[in-house]
């Protein structure tokens, strides 16, 4: 089964296969005008908490702790409810989480996509 949630950097061009484009950063990406950026939802509330984001600082040596702590934040009742709202808004289409981080191997979108794909499996969303 194909994962219902994928990730893409904000600087990549949108594609027809993106489905629902969900911007998942708390802060607006540098150098990107609001007129040029295409997204359907802005879910600041699914981004890591400001304290966790600051602590992580995109340092690879903090990755394991960040991933663990952010995954714990995403198990919160409000985060789980918000994930459900995003799936509902997608209406069965693919969800593309759009993020601004430069590092393709150490970013919050990877953790959130895993959490949302797990949510989809648990709730039998295809």
Automatic annotation (TrEMBL):
Coiled coil: none annotated. GO terms for molecular function: uroporphyrin-III C-methyltransferase activity. It is an enzyme of class 2 (transferase). Its EC number is 2.1.1.107. It comes from the Bacteria. It holds the Pfam family DUF488-N3i. The keyword Methyltransferase applies. This is Probable uroporphyrin-III c-methyltransferase. Keywords: Methyltransferase, Transferase.
